[in-house]
Amino acid sequence: MDLVQMLANAVNNVSAVGIKLILALALVGGLVMLMSHFGNIASRARRGQVQDGAGKILVVMLICCCVISLHSVMNATSNQMALGDVTFEAISYVSEGQYGPAAVAINAGLTLLQWVGVIYCYMGLLRIRRSQKDGHTGLSAGDDVMKGAKQLIVGTMLAVNPQVLTALQNTLNIHWSVSYTH
Fold it and tell me: Taking the CB of residue 47, how many other CB atoms lie within 10 A of it?
């Protein structure tokens, strides 16, 4: 086993564990956000302070549920762009017969980008959640929503990067063929 193969195996294993970690953090983080929001509502009710409206409570609950079900949100986003479902397997987009030993490194890089995409999606949903915090003006809340939506879309595209590359190839009519000879 050469160095490229060892690095590719390491990237594939770290990416698989990293994606599971991000999905677990999203689950726990969404539950904590939901419980803390309800705790704040109960605390303000005991002190007789102004309560949030039903709309804000519903929006926060919806965002927290989206964070909890991060994988489903990524699937829905991907399906809206006609890219199919998001799977978290090691990517094998480039064949070794066509690109030789470089194919292993390219596939490992695409798998690493998939992990980065999951992180971006999680950060995007957290940014959208931040828009509902008290003290935000309409302008800063709108900016948080826009940036969060962009991160969610870009993260999903990174998570399904083989489908994006195939769609880009077909759209631009770019078909490259490189044959590797020993």
Answer: 7
pTM given for the model: 0.86
pLDDT beyond 80 at 136: no
Distance, CA of 150 to CA of 146 (rounded, Å):
6
- The C-alpha atoms of residue 44 and residue 102 are separated, in whole angstroms, by 59
Which residues does 74 contact at the CB level (< 8 Å), separation at least 6? 86, 118, 121, 155, 156, 159
* C-alpha pair distances (Å), 126 with each of 9, 50, 131: 31, 25, 9
Give yes or no for residue 166 having a pLDDT over 70.
Answer: yes
Tens digit of each residue's pLDDT (9 = 90 or more) over 73-109: 999 999 999 999 998 888 888 888 887 878 888 899 9
Please check whether residue 78 is in contact with residue 85, taking contact to mean a CB–CB distance below 8 angstroms. Answer: yes
| Tokens 């490194």 belong to residue | 105
Where helices occur in the chain by DSSP H, the ranges are 3-47, 54-68, 70-80, 96-99, 102-130, 138-159, 161-172
43 burial via Cβ count (<10 Å: 0-12, 13-18, 19+):
exposed
